[in-house]
Design a protein that fits this description.
Largest sheet: 2 strands, antiparallel
Number of strands: 2
Strand content: under 5%
Helix content: over 70%
Number of domains: 2
Length: about 260
């Protein structure tokens, strides 16, 4: 009798895990579709902006990132409709690896696209009432690139949430959900700070404001990374509250000061 009850409990836990995994996979397939669509939009707008002339390394890099996004988006979107392929690609370290790699390369691409010096998505006003102010040069490229960035981050977060759901026992699912919600906030701050850092470096101007922006990007990238690593290393599902509080206050203070200076 105890054996039968144990098997029944294992079956229910497995069933619940499958339901959670299936829901995550369904939601993430929409994310991959968003990556495919937004990559296509960015590539079309970027190609039209440059009239198909991609001679510099930066331009080729943007085009390559868009092409990779289209391929991955199409692959995972198509796989979501074929159960046999979906079982091999979704919710494992294959999908996690692709999502991490694409998030990394597109973060760099965002820095290139958003840098006013490159005159792709934004530029610096010279003949206006506010000379030296950044302005959106191409709205379609500007917002589509940010949408692609957000979709990539959402997919990456969803992948690791599902991986954790598979490895954590049913008794700790609620704790794992709290852990993921906590990590998500720091991860979004990390990737956003990386965009600020890359954009500031690509400005390539020897001014105090640029140096300060680079410093802010570096510090606000290092602090979230430290919190995330501490959380995983301690495996207490939450980094120390003092560490999080100090990191949050420093990040808020630096960003407020940067906004006031810019």
């Amino acid at each position: 009798m105890p054996t039968l009850l144990k098997r029944l409990a294992d079956f229910r836990a497995k069933k619940n895990n499958i339901l959670v995994t299936s829901k995550e996979g369904l939601d993430r397939s929409k994310g991959w579709t968003a990556i495919f669509v937004s990559s296509t939009v960015v590539l079309i707008v970027f190609s039209d902006l440059l009239s198909g002339k991609f001679h510099s390394g930066k331009k080729l890099y943007i085009v390559s990132c868009c092409a990779i996004g289209m391929i991955l988006g199409f692959l995972f979107t198509t796989a979501s409709y074929i159960e046999r392929i979906k079982a091999k690609l979704y919710g494992n370290w294959i999908e996690a690896s692709f999502s991490v790699i694409y998030m990394a390369i597109w973060s760099i691409a965002m820095g290139i696209l958003q840098s006013p010096k490159n005159n792709f998505a934004s530029t610096v006003l010279t003949a206006s009432t506010l000379p030296g102010t950044d302005s959106i040069l191409n709205a379609n490229l500007y917002f589509a690139s940010w949408f692609l960035f957000a979709a990539s981050a959402a997919v990456l977060i969803s992948v690791f949430k599902e991986l954790g759901t598979k490895t954590v026992s049913s008794d700790h699912l609620s704790i794992w959900s709290s852990f993921i919600a906590n990590i998500n906030r720091w991860f979004l701050l990390l990737v956003s700070s990386l965009v600020v850092l890359v954009s500031s470096i690509l400005l390539d101007t020897n001014t105090t404001r640029t140096h300060f922006a680079i410093s802010v990007g570096a510090i606000t990238s290092a602090l979230p990374f430290l919190v995330i690593i501490s959380t995983f290393k301690c495996f207490k599902y939450r980094a120390g509250i003092k560490l999080q509080l100090v990191a949050a206050l420093i990040c808020v203070g630096l960003y407020c000061f940067e906004v006031g200076e810019s």
